[in-house]
Amino acid sequence: MGSSPSDPLAAMGRVTEFGATIRIAREVISKENVTVPAGTFSAFKVRSTMEGFSGASMVSYEWWTNGKGLVKVTTGDDQSIVSEAITITTP
Q1: pLDDT tens, residue by residue, 57-91
Q2: Fewest beta carbons less than 10 Å away: which of 4, 22, 69, 91?
C-alpha cells in the first residue's frame, strides 16, 4: 500500500476527524474475493465506524481493490443497505 493521496488504501486504518462532530475509524479486517455486478475482485474488507457528535455510531463495511478503488459498501443495522459497482472504467 502506498502513501500517495491518490491511493484509496492509504487512509485505511487511520482515524479521520471532521471538526468536532464526526469521527470515522477504518480498519482492514480481511482480504477476500468479492463478487459484484462489475465482476469478481480480490479486495480488502474494511470496517468503517462513524461516530456522531451525539454519541450515536454506525458501522459499515467497504471492499477496496488495488487499481479499481471501492467496489462494494454495506451499511445499516443489519447491513442490508448495499451499494455495488456495476461497471468500472480505469484510465
Answers
A1: 899 999 999 999 999 999 988 989 999 999 998 87
A2: 91
* Structural contact between residues 47 and 27, judged by C-beta atoms closer than 8 angstroms: yes
Q: How far apart are CA 76 and CA 9, in angstroms?
A: 23
Q: What is the pTM of this model?
A: 0.73
Buried b (16+ CB within 10 A) or exposed e, 31-62: eeebebeeeebebbbbebebeeeeeeeeebeb
**With contact defined as beta carbons under 8 Å apart, do 34 and 41 qualify?**
yes
17: Cβ contacts below 8 Å, ≥ 6 apart: 23, 24
* CA–CA separation, 27 and 46 (whole Å): 5
As a residue count, the chain comes to 91
Task: Record the cell numbers describing residue 2, joined without a space.
Answer: 502506498
